[in-house]
Amino acid sequence: MTTKQAPSTLQKMGLDSPMALALHLPSRYENETELLTIEEAIARGRFASAQTQGIVIRNKVLFRPRRQMVVTIEDETETLNLRFLNFYPSQQKQMAVGVHVRVRGEVRDGFQGSEMVHPTVRAVAPDAPLPNSLTPVYPASVGVSQTVIRKAVTQALRDPSLQESLAEFLPKKLMAELLPSNDWPSLQSAITYLHQPPADANTQSLLERTHPAWRRVQFEELLAQQISLKRAHAIRRERNAPSFAKAQDEGKNTTKEQSFEEGLLRVLPFKLTNAQDRVWSEISKDLSKSFPMNRLLQGDVGSGKTVVAALAAARVMDHGYQAAIMAPTEILAEQHYLKMKEWFETLGVKIAWLSGSLKAKEKRLAQEVIENGQAQLIIGTHALIQENVSFAKLGLAVIDEQHRFGVRQRLEIQQRVGSELFYCHQLMMSATPIPRTLAMTYYADLDVSVIDELPPGRKPIATKVVKAGRRDEVIGGLQSWLSKGLQAYWVCPLIEESEALQLQTATESFEQLTQALPDFKVGLVHGRLKAEEKAAVMAAFKANEIQLLVATTVIEVGVDVPNAALMVIEHAERFGYAQIHQLRGRVGRGSADSVCILMYAEPLSMAAKERLQTLRETSDGFVIAERDLSLRGPGELLGAKQSGDAMLRFVDLQRDAWLIELAQQAADRLLAEHADLVERHLERWLGSRAEFLKA
Length: 695
Ligand code: ADP
Ligand code: MG
Hints:
The chain is of the alpha/beta class. Among the domains are: 34-130, CATH 2.40.50.140; 250-451, Rossmann fold, CATH 3.40.50.300; 461-618, Rossmann fold, CATH 3.40.50. The protein is built from 27 helices and 22 strands. It starts with a helix and ends in a 10-residue tail after the last helix. Magnesium ion binds next to helix 13.
């Protein structure tokens, strides 16, 4: 019965082929190759596991302080208690008096002498043989035992098809040139070694994944990734996209008095910063090429990415093509819509708005003008790709806060914005800097432009960390702040488990603050509000009809109210690095000195303490992103979490940075000199996951 169930559970874990099982590598090992006497096991102490054996001389079920089973075993040297806080009747039988058992666990000083708590126990003869390799412990999911996985892996390693799948094909000469001091085993022996390391293996380097066997596997994995990224890069260059050179360069400017591009520069109430100028010329160059741009515009919160996107849109519209701007949230998309209206409407640009919350009729109308080409600039949420939208002549897609879209969504965007005839240019924007290692791996086919300068007149934000116990003091400070004619945000925490609870705490804060600050108008905005309601509150805040805005994290990105220069964040300990950085970026946009108060409730975990401290000390988005990466891993940073597929399974981008460069070189050489091997390598490593690398 169990053997019938096991394969399906394994299949659910994706372990459905000998190759998949071979690549399901252990997360750690247990050493069952060594057998100690009880005396020696006791001497080893409580911090290292030990294996010993003996005859059961006592087996008692106690009821105090709680129900538990205590079994005593004995050998010629000592006695040892085994304590089980949960146990089955079958275990009582397994450890009946007189049975000889082999046990493994850590020995500690118990109340009644030395003991192991919940050891692994097997009833075996005293002379039962010991394994001669370390016992692998595999990443498992609920409902699959180690025994089942071990058995399946052992079987897979013997499968004849695996010889073929793991065959060596990296040219020796190439490897010797790239890595002269190469002590790596072949792939096949590396994999076998990792599943069944000999008793004397260097377990430290196995655990830390720095062992040559690990290096070999990591290198192969990175190589596959580098190859597919380079290929994506080459494929993109082969594709056609309309080329949009600057209008007067081509003498196209005859039908219009002035291009949208020039018009926009004229109506802007400010001059571009040097950094904005620079990135715009990089983008402008891309747009003039006849293959699609794939560029990330990176700039810290408030650095002024929007206007650069607007310039790109203007260029495209000058050539009679449409431009679309897509943002991950309704509020953010709306802000873009309002901004674009402000800049472009006087120039006669037809702007369309599309979001999921539009009424059916409005939606149909928007779709119509997008489809017949009347709309030149289209702004919206991912409704732009979800709804049945077809663009008359899309030349540019701008995707704001691109990391907030999942991998699947990004793929969909790419598939939707292209057509068979031509691909549109793509500009992604993000305030989250991509650390170098990440840029070299996941984003190798992405050109990056960086705005590394804030518009003039920005004041640094002073960040304070304050205990929740001083809430009244904070409210007092808020009072005098608002009295100066300034505005403020009060941010309530995200409560992931319960939206209802989140709303409740926000409402409570709102009521408390309304009472405490009778001279001012307090507003409340949260995720449950309808789009129009949200927009109305935001508009009132922008117009200073509301002085204090109580909000859940819906204001996380993009909101722009320069007169609001104070932000209080409640339960700041519950937020991640990126969230606080984004939130804090809402202030410091006007001429007033800006303050961000991070209120925290005790007890504070070490991680939260460090996080708040870092956030107080720096507002450098790059430093914060690096910290974030080391904490969370790239999956979350990339928004790949929901895809469930970690693309690099064995590589740690920080630990193994040097391997990335090596893999990059090897990928170049393989593509140039051994194109025939490339396909096989990709298939081996990526299989169905290859798609994801293109997103
Ligand atoms: P982000 O990069 O975070 O998206 P925005 O594009 O929203 O930043 O710009 C933040 C604010 O700075 C906006 O109010 C915008 O109008 C203003 N801004 C942008 N560029 C400049 C500039 N060169 N000089 C002055 N203000 C600018
Ligand atoms: Mg923005």
